[in-house]
């Protein structure tokens, strides 16, 4: 029977001619006999049989690693030497095979080649191969996932070692039964990933239909994520949705340390890109762990995880391998009366789900139960009995793990993994204990009047900001003006109300991503901004001060409000006229640097800025610390500044912060 496929389009580099090749026999023979169509125009390379084309190709491997530990979980196979086949690009090569009607056969040869290369790494038994599958292969009835499983078996690898990447860059075929097509891919335990997520045709429709194990966020969203709040918001939302659905998320194309830090903070599970390692055709260059990633993760103090707290509450329930015979599973339940369920893991120790004792009750209590499970015609496997259970990385925040648990109906708890491998189980009771311990720790540091974080959290934020090598931060110290005379006249209860009022203004105006609001004590407050600029921070301070000035007027008597001042005694007992309550702010920018400024130097600088702000009509003093720990004043200038400092600051002030010019 002839396998004839209509052409999709002429290959890249052709002149519009479309070739349809009728191929006799099985796909492998077809690939050997058929000639590539419309290729090599202007390249000087003569047409060759498709098998010879594939022989000229090579695969480069690029690692995909855990974003917290740097442990390698897999390698993506990337085609190389396509120009030697006469095609100008990889896509042109695949288009040519599609038009010739041999895409499925060529794809099979490519998989054999990639698997062979992967098997020589010495890491294949504990990692996974990510292979880009042309979506159009699934249109053909020639695609057979069992062929891939057989190829893996010849190298001593399990069928689940491969993960097929389905690209969004090409419109997905309009299958009559798409679920059956994806089931065909998973038939032998292979994994699925959606590549280039967010840039193609199918989007959330493919995410819903394919039920992938991984999604790879396209480089478009990762580039400039540290400076583009929209990309950061989109990635945060995608990661959140994926984790709720039990999908691991890969940041693709991470090239800089700054991008890595933000991806880690957003919640990506895995990372791939030049920052880790460039694709290489030399397998000796590959590693099982990338210490560069592990060291960067340890050095990034901003996204400190709850790993220690979570690990202390993890229950180490022994897992069942997915290939275990069902009769052995029954025996395990009979011998172990302490557990009503067991986690199920695959060959790479990755969670598949959990197996409830109730699922086997009809076999356990039937006189023929074991015979039924042994029956080869029924083909009962452990995977068929395992049910879904939420999975969380040990480095996730406890609150996010609780969210995953709450969105899964009738779940026993959460399976905990490290480097994608099962390490233990968190029950609902353990999760509540973790959250309770975190809340108690926060409550101990919380200011009882304003319910804002206190000095411990403030110190941690400042320490993380000073330690950052990738992201600028702005530290803001806020202090009331004329608070003592207000207290003396209206009493401490009114003073407390003014403090609470200011706290509410801060929460309302500063409650946004990357902002931290704390209460040092009394009428002193702190605001920290990640990734902010001095200019935007000063604008926010001006807004907060203006709102507070208006709101706090309501605490004065009508006569004092009308005058705009009160008569009270100063600290020496002398009567003076004092303006109504206002706020002064010291605003200090800290840039990313390898040499971290000392905490004492930063605190001393903020104290000096505060003094300048109190004496200036604007009530704001701003500056920033450069890499050499030198403080550059932006405005207003301190009275004791040198002529050189004054000239530098005025120039910087006019060119970069015109909003502060007064």
Distance between the termini: 86 Å
**Averaged pLDDT, please?**
80
Helix content: 25-40%
Shape: elongated
Evaluate the radius of gyration.
Answer: 32 Å
CATH homologous superfamily caption of the largest domain? EAL domain
- Largest beta-sheet details: 8 strands, mixed, barrel
Structural class: alpha/beta
Major sheet strand order: 1-2-3-4-5-6-7-8
- CATH architecture heading of the largest domain: Alpha-Beta Barrel
In CATH's first tier, which class of the largest domain applies? Alpha Beta
Low-confidence segments, given as residue ranges, are 1-47, 641-662
**Number of contiguous helices:** 25
Per DSSP E runs of 2 or more residues, the count of β-strands stands at 22
Strand content: 15-25%
How many domains? The number is 3
* CATH topology group of the largest domain: TIM Barrel
Report what the structure shows.
- The chain is an alpha/beta fold.
- The chain folds into three domains: 27-304, EAL domain (TIM Barrel); 309-434, Roll (CBS-domain), CATH 3.10.580; 453-660, Alpha-Beta Plaits.
- The protein contains 25 helices and 22 strands.
- The protein has an eight-stranded mixed β-barrel with strand order 1-2-3-4-5-6-7-8, surrounded by four helices.
- Helix 17 (398-406) packs antiparallel against helix 18.
- It starts with 26 loop residues before the first helix and ends in a 6-residue tail after the last helix.
- Mean pLDDT is 80; it is low at 1-47 and 641-662.
């Amino acid at each position: 029977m002839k396998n004839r496929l209509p052409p999709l389009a002429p290959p890249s580099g052709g002149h519009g001619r479309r070739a349809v090749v009728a191929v006799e026999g099985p796909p492998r023979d077809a690939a050997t006999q058929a000639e590539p169509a419309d290729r090599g125009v202007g390249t000087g390379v003569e047409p060759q049989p498709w098998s010879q084309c594939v022989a000229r190709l090579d695969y480069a491997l690029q690692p995909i690693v855990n974003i917290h530990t740097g442990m390698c979980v897999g390698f993506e196979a990337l085609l190389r030497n396509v120009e030697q086949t006469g095609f100008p690009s990889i896509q042109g090569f695949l288009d040519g095979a599609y038009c010739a009607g041999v895409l499925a056969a060529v794809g099979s040869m490519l998989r054999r080649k990639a698997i062979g290369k992967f098997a020589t790494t010495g890491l294949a038994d504990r990692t996974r191969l990510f292979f880009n599958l042309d979506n159009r292969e699934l249109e053909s009835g020639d695609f057979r996932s069992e062929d891939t499983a057989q190829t893996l078996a010849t190298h001593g690898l399990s069928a689940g070692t491969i993960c097929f990447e389905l690209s969004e860059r090409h419109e997905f075929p309009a299958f009559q039964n798409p679920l059956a097509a994806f089931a065909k891919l998973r038939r032998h335990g292979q994994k699925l990933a959606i590549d280039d997520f967010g840039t193609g045709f199918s989007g959330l429709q493919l995410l819903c239909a394919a039920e992938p194990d991984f999604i790879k966020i396209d480089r478009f969203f990762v580039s400039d994520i540290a400076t583009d709040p929209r990309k950061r918001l989109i990635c945060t939302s995608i990661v959140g949705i994926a984790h709720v659905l039990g999908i691991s998320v890969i940041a693709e194309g991470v090239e800089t340390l700054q991008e890595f830090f933000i991806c880690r903070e957003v919640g990506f599970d895995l990372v791939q890109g030049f920052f880790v390692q460039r694709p290489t055709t030399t397998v000796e260059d590959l590693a099982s762990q990338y210490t560069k990633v592990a060291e960067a993760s340890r050095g990034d103090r901003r996204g400190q995880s709850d790993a220690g707290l979570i690990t202390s509450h993890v229950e180490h329930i022994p897992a069942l391998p997915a290939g275990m015979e069902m009769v052995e599973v029954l025996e395990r339940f009979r011998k172990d009366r302490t557990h009503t369920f067991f986690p199920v893991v695959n060959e790479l120790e990755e969670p598949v789900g959990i197996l409830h004792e109730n699922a086997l009750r009809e076999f356990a209590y039937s006189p023929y139960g074991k015979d039924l499970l042994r029956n080869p015609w029924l083909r009962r496997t452990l995977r068929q009995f395992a049910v879904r259970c939420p999975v969380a990385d040990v480095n996730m925040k406890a609150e996010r793990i609780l969210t995953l648990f709450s969105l899964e109906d009738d779940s026993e708890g959460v399976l905990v993994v490290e480097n994608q491998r099962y390490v233990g189980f968190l029950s609902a009771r353990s999760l509540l204990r973790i959250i309770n311990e975190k809340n108690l720790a926060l409550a101990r540091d919380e200011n009882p009047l304003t319910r804002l974080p206190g000095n411990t959290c403030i110190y941690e934020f400042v320490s993380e900001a000073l330690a950052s090598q990738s992201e600028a931060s702005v530290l803001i110290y806020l202090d009331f003006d004329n608070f003592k005379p207000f207290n003396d006249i209206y009493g401490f209860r009114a003073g407390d109300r003014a403090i609470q009022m200011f706290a509410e203004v801060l929460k309302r105006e500063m409650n946004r991503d990357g902002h931290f609001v704390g209460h040092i004590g009394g009428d002193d407050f702190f605001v920290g901004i990640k990734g902010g600029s001095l200019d935007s921070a000063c604008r926010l301070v001006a807004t907060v001060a203006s709102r507070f000035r208006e709101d706090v007027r309501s605490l004065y008597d009508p006569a004092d409000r009308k005058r705009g001042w009160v008569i009270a005694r100063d600290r020496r007992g002398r009567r003076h006229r004092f303006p109504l309550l206002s706020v002064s702010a010291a605003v200090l920018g800290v840039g990313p640097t390898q040499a971290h400024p000392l905490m004492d130097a930063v605190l001393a600088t903020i104290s000096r800025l505060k003094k300048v702000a109190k004496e200036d009509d604007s009530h704001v003093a701003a500056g920033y610390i450069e890499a050499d720990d030198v403080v550059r004043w932006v405005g207003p200038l301190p009275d004791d500044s040198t002529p050189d400092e004054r000239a530098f600051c005025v120039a910087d002030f006019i060119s970069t912060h015109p909003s502060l010019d007064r």
